[in-house]
Amino acid sequence: MEFPVRCFTCGSVIGHRFDEYKSGIKEKTPDVVLDELGFDRYCCRRMFLSHVDIVQSILRYLRV
What we know:
- The chain is mainly α.
- It has 4 helices and no strands.
């Protein structure tokens, strides 16, 4: 599943910050990166912390 554009709980737009989050967690801890990006609500933070990027593994099984 792709990263959602909006938070499922509060509806805030969060999708535009996912690339910044992915690049930031290579150098810092996720909680510091989320604080720097300005995500204070725990529901929005949950969206980032619990996302599993499985698109590449699913693409192997596409039927042609």
